[in-house]
Design goal:
The chain is an alpha/beta fold. Helices cover 43% and strands 15% of the residues. The strands form two sheets. A six-stranded parallel beta sheet has the order 2-1-3-4-5-6, with helices on both faces. It has a six-stranded parallel beta sheet with strand order 9-8-7-10-11-12, sandwiched between helices. β7, α7 and β8 form a beta-alpha-beta unit. The longest helix is centred in the C-terminal third of the chain and has 18 residues.
Length: 353
């Protein structure tokens, strides 16, 4: 059986973070679907594989890419879901991150990007590379709305059955728009706001160093509005979404944004920041409401609170958009086609950008 080596540098990731949502939710589902296409997926293997798919560009990705470059070449895909803007750092640090990412990505045969926005980024920096775009797919049924799960979640956090809940799912960083989330919550003191997600860094020394380097990512936890609940990391995202009336996603930068896809799959009415990456599959007024500032976000949330029929319709259309653009079965078939192409099977399933 053809062996595909997924590089995520699991040992380093485990030392750094307690929040493995992307790795522990998206990855297993995608692996299961790809293996149905006739591949065996292994993780972080140094040898004895047919193709390498780099998901996390850290030490092992660098080492194996260099080894490839020295002559023992195996076909390689670099997943371009990360840029220097993924990190809230200064210009000098961004330069170093960009240089590191480019160093690994340029050794790959294909740079596979989850959105046109990220594909454009890699096209600008590595114009001679084979750069392609393929949406992330999710198990849509796994995130489908469940009234039972929602009620159980509300009971767990002592949220009243009739309370209006505005939810966000994401790591607790400024890049995810925490600042605007707090400001909007202050404007609605009688509404429950729910932040599902925790700090990224597990090691306190690493966290302290990051806070020193990334001064503009520090979050002032003083004077937090009393109507906000912080759940920390939870694997039960479906229940959290089902317990919510509105999904509010003020993230400042995304290369795809799996959380908003999951909310759409859950049929939640979405209020998001006006980002080009979201406009690739969502349309303001049709399946979401987009804004650029706290006042916009607050106005959209107020509209959804006052108009239940519109909120339901918006959520229903969001679900339809998720089905059209992010079905994991369709994505996995396209991904398998790319693997076959690189291995010489000549199954072209995803065109160049």
């Amino acid at each position: 059986m053809t062996i595909v080596n997924y590089i995520i540098d699991d040992n380093i990731v485990n030392k750094l973070t307690t929040n493995r949502k992307w790795l522990d939710s998206y990855m297993p589902a995608m692996v299961e679907c790809v293996e149905k296409q006739g591949f065996e997926i292994v993780f972080d293997r140094d040898s004895d594989f047919d193709l390498m798919h780099i998901h996390i560009p850290m030490a092992q990705a660098y080492r194996l890419s260099t080894k490839n470059n020295n002559g023992s070449h195996k076909p390689a895909i670099f997943h371009g879901h990360m840029t220097e803007d993924t990190f809230m750092v200064g210009c000098k640090m961004k330069y170093l991150i960009r240089k590191w990412i480019k160093r690994i990505a340029q050794e790959s045969d294909i740079i596979l990007c989850p959105s046109h926005s990220s594909a454009e980024y890699y096209q600008d920096h590595l114009p001679k590379k084979d750069i392609r775009q393929l949406n992330y797919g999710i198990d849509l049924d796994r995130y489908a709305y469940s009234s039972e799960d929602g009620l159980n979640f509300r009971q767990r956090y002592r949220i009243g059955k009739d309370e209006t809940v505005v939810c966000c799912v994401g790591g607790f960083t400024q890049r995810k728009g925490v600042g605007d989330f707090l400001e909007v919550a202050r404007l609605f003191p009688k509404i429950r706001f729910l932040w599902v997600g925790g700090m990224f860094y597990k090691n306190q020394h690493v966290h302290s160093l990051y806070n020193f380097v990334v001064r503009n990512d520090n979050i002032d936890m003083k004077n937090i509005p009393e109507n906000i609940i912080f759940t920390g990391y939870t694997p039960d995202v479906k229940a959290a979404l089902s317990a919510s009336d509105i999904f509010f996603f003020p993230s400042i930068h995304e290369t795809q944004g799996l959380a908003i896809v999951e909310a759409a799959a859950n049929s939640r009415p979405i209020v998001s920041r006006d980002l080009s990456v979201f406009k690739e599959w969502l349309t303001h007024g049709c399946d979401c409401l987009m804004g650029t500032c706290v006042n916009d976000f607050a106005a959209h949330i107020q509209t959804l609170i006052e108009d239940d029929d519109f909120a339901v319709r918006l959520g229903r259309e969001a679900r339809r958009s998720a089905v059209r653009h992010h079905d994991i079965n369709r994505t996995s078939r396209s991904l398998a086609g790319i693997y076959k192409e690189l291995l010489g099977y000549h199954d072209h399933s995803c065109k160049n950008v």
